[in-house]
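Hey everyone, long-time lurker, first post.

I ran two proteins through the pipeline my lab uses and got sequence/structure pairs for each. Pasting them in order. The first:
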Amino acid sequence: MSNVADLDIADVHSGPPGPGGLGETYKSLPGWARWMITAALGILVLSIVQEIAGTSLLTSNVTSSAMLRWSIPILLAGLGGLFSERSGVVNIGLEGMMILGTWCGAWGALEFGSPWWGLLTGLIGGALGGLLHAIATVQFGVDQIVSGVAINILAPGLTRYLSERVFGEMQGGSVSQSPRLTGAGSFTIPGISDVLETIKDWGIFFISDVADVLLGFVSNMRWFTLLSLLIVPLSAFVLMRTRFGLRVRICGENPSAGESLGVGIYRHKYVAVMISGALAGMAGAYIAIELSGLYRGGQTVGRGFIGLAALIFGNWRAFGILAGALLFSYPFGLQLIDFDASGSGVATRALLLVIAIALYATAIYLWKTGGDEAPPPDIDAADYDTPTSSYMKMVATLGGKGGGLTLLAFALGTISLIWYLLTERAAAWLPNTMPYMVVLLVLIFAAQRLRPPKAAGVPYRRGDH
């Protein structure tokens, strides 16, 4: 079996070590230390930029709290994709399963009078979508992309029909939305929040900003958010440290070898894809119950697809997906706070300068490394001529870096800088597009040395060797 599963996500983004000095020292640090240093550098850049732009929202605890809340749907969708693709099944239907979760979650919360029941029914609704995907792809060999797209088309129509039949007859409900829902509440970690609040009030550059950011993670945290965060180490443990996880990974790396060892390939694929749907459904229930306070048609707005982007960014590792979800949700959280403030648009405009700095740093890095090509990942599905193989070929092309990317990073950085200098506030349409711009830029420039499961997307039939 391939050694893909043993690759550390921190190795993906750190790049090749330098000839010595800081680069070699950084490379020798454990993965968690490298991520902490990277996060600290990111906060330092935000601190500098907000001083230049005259805003305090970039490192505000209100912004980081909003970022954390909005990262949960992306995180859960990404973890759902992790289970599915580790078993060898590409699940582009996460968006549709998330939609099923929004409706089922709202129905369960209203029917049983508890947000926790809503979370459970949302999870079941998503799992049923995963079961449908598994039957189509695992049992009948339908192309995995075609099946996922079909679920994405089916889910909105089905939930609208159900809303007309169920919510339309309730007071406060209609064909497109449910009555109001009650969340599960929130909590603040005592002691830690007090210390961070004190450090924040010191007003020391960078140090107080770090405390302000961390304060958003420990104040007014939703109980659903804590539960979702605990799923990250649980997923990593299950996939990397249990017999079940090993067998799931065999399905995604070399199912023929697994079959020869007596592994039930079909059974493990079914279970993994249903877990994938369940996590996506849980993400949908979180959106309906905690973020929106009601079910509304179209409220997922593509977060299932951003979850797939977080999966790729995280190199098919649970903690890498968490990092990607936080990064991709930052513009979402910032725009909500920024455009509710009196100086609306100033902080979002400042984010253009942050993007310019990041792109210039990327261009320098690519130039210093000479634009050498990283070896492309070994993906079996790329040898087929199907929609799924086209998707996997696209993933494979993200794994390299060339000299052309250096010029592209420099050009896009210059455009962002000029845009920042020529405006005083962000345009009204920019907040709706910036999160997706960030996703695309990160995938283009940061998704280096990808190692997806070798047999992901490959149709499997018992007895194939």
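...and the second, right after it:
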Amino acid sequence: MGKIQVMPKVMADQIAAGEVVARPASCVKELVENSLDAGATRIEVSLAEGGIACVTVTDDGEGMSPEDALLAFHRHATSKVREPRDLARIRTLGFRGEALAAIASVARVRLITRARGEESGVLVRVEGGEMHPPEPIGAPFGTTLEVRDLFFNTPARLKYLRSPQTEQARSLEVVQRESLAHPEVAFVCKTERQVLFQTPGRGDAREVWAALYGVGEARMLLEIEGAAGDCALRGYVGRPTQARSSRQHGYLFINGRPVRNPAIQQAVERAYGERLMVGRYPVYALYLEMDPALIDPNVHPQKWEVRLSEERDVCVLVESAVRAALDSVMLTAVPRVRTSPRLGSPVPLPLPEEPERLRSAPQDSPLAARRDESSYRPARKLLPLGQGAGPDVAPKEAWASALAVRESAGAPEGSAEIEPKADGADGVHETPQERPADWQLRPIGQALRMYILAEDGNDLYIIDQHAAHERVLYEDLLDAWQRGDVQPMPLLAPLELSLAPSAFEEVMARRDELLALGFEIDPFGAHTAVVRTIPDSWQGLDYAALLRDALDDVASMGPKATARDIMHRLATRACKAAIKAHDTLTLPEMEALCRRLTRARDPYHCPHGRPVFVRMSERDLAKSFRRIV
């Protein structure tokens, strides 16, 4: 007898389930996608014990006939593709016809469905791959699919599931992602005790974003759109201050399918550039509509990834659209004075009693003059509790508790609540503030030897002098390199730098690119490089220290780095020579810096992503001094 045998059907189904069903969230994803393909307008997901005990998905889609309900549990049975050529133009979320069979092989499944036009529904039960005879049942139009006791017949896999709380969080993430992909569908995700998440299904992605992250975050999103060839792009991107510490808050949807694509993700991050600090990542929701013939979704077991035939063009479109949206608005931080105390209500503090001899003195007497002078003392009768109500509170701490930094362009003056509007209006849209075309800053003076105070006729600006000079130096260096105006400046004594073996090889491989930027570098020994020229724009800088770090950066960039990437990295290093905090500036120096800053392409952020200035409008100042309420 030969060694090779055909596996039993139950064993084959359980092995196939290992690719499709990894955890309860996998069941939620497959069932929700089936509901969306069925044209559902409302989908309800119920979880028991995080989905380990039970996952129930109910929809109001087209339902199934009794015959289709039985066939749905057979492997490779599907209504979504008919011929091999259909695989080249897939428009549905599912197409393999293996999800229900895989789930039913490792769980106890109940399917209740009723198609439009049918007098009654049908109940189909499958346990561990064994199907029971169908039964008629009264049911509304649509489908309810219940998955109980996941992995009951595969204890080894059940053992590797996480806690119910973790599995519930994973399933909730799937529902949230699908709701953002399809804002026209109303979603509800709940447990036995509470509703975890729900959306109205009015077709506005901002409403879904508000349900995910809050109304205040949804207000600040910037809308983008663009088109190139057979690809149309729309969506929303967050402002730099909305950036998160991980990449999981960036969403990409291609033809309604949530996917991950590292190339498009990198295109978005390139568009933000220096606006983001190191270790911070943008939030966004991008919707790409493409010809299905240009997409291959059949490259990942769980369909999380797709292959694009014109990926480079799509990345260019995404990067340009995101950069245009960020360049079009004032991305500045604005101090906001709270209109009510955070820690309590105002507490009256008694003032010293006015002496009797001052109160009774004649109006033209010296004592009356002293009484008038005393009236100019700062009133301390109503200081909010916790905001410097006592003499021991340092001024810096008092200001820090009184001011809250927020971002401009329509952010709410008080809380982030939104009044509901009639006729389905969500009320979360805003008009971004455009950058003035003739923007000019007039410096007033220097504060704390760190900040420049300036105004433009409408607003007051508090400028970080170091960050502003970094931005100016950075753009000047890049502009000079891009125009080809860089002249190599020979060093009187060539600089020798010892590099690690791997770094030395990388630097030597890029000698031509570095020479075009003004750096003439030759090998000198085993792992030593000798620098003979530097760009003339580096004159006066501590080029010895800068070069060592810059060459280490170039070596770490890898072979895929372009000349533009090298320019950015070298310019970022060179901007370290900017003026520092506590450097005293003269008025002409402040005027020159402000004049150059207003002409910068991005005057709002330093090359490392920190804000360059804080802006206070005339209204903000008036509210601070209680001139208006």
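Reply from user beta_strand_b:
Welcome! Quick read of the second one: The chain has a mean pLDDT of 82. The longest helix spans residues 465-483.
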